[in-house]
Structures are given as structure tokens and as C-alpha cells.
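Submission checklist for the structure archive. All mandatory fields must be present; incomplete records are returned to the submitter.

[x] Identifier: Putative membrane protein insertion efficiency factor
[x] Organism: Brevundimonas intermedia
[x] Residue count: 78
[x] Sequence attached
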Amino acid sequence: MSLYERGVRAAHRGYKLTLSPLIGQQCRFLPTCSDYGRDALIQHGPVKGGWLTVRRLCKCHPFGGSGYDPVPPAKTDT
């Protein structure tokens, strides 16, 4: 596991232990937005993963969707 991945996982764990209990468990998506952000950052890196996370957070409003919304797979050069 790279230092970057460990940092992302540590930040995610810190969020889950500190802020998440205060905000509440009301995410309408699966995986949750924080889990999505963690996975997007690890799979796609900070730029694209950050963009995917922001896009996902923008869906989080009363008129937004819900349900299963996984991180798109990373493209590989074959």
C-alpha cells in the first residue's frame, strides 16, 4: 500500500470517527459518499478522483438521485 493510499485511508477513517457521527447516516447512495470519495481517490488519483468525488457530492441534494452508484473503473492501456 502506497503512502498516498495510506493517507487517503487515514483521512477517511478520521472523517468516519469524527465528523460522520455529527452529520448523521443519511446518504442515499451506495457506497456512501465518503466511501465513494476514498475509492475514487485511490483508484483514479487526486485529480480525477477529486473531480469524481465533487461530482458525486453535487448529486447530494433533495432532488438528486439515490441507489447504487459505484466508482467507474480506471481505464487501463492494453
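[x] Structure attached
Curator remark: The chain has two helices and two strands. The chain has a mean pLDDT of 89.
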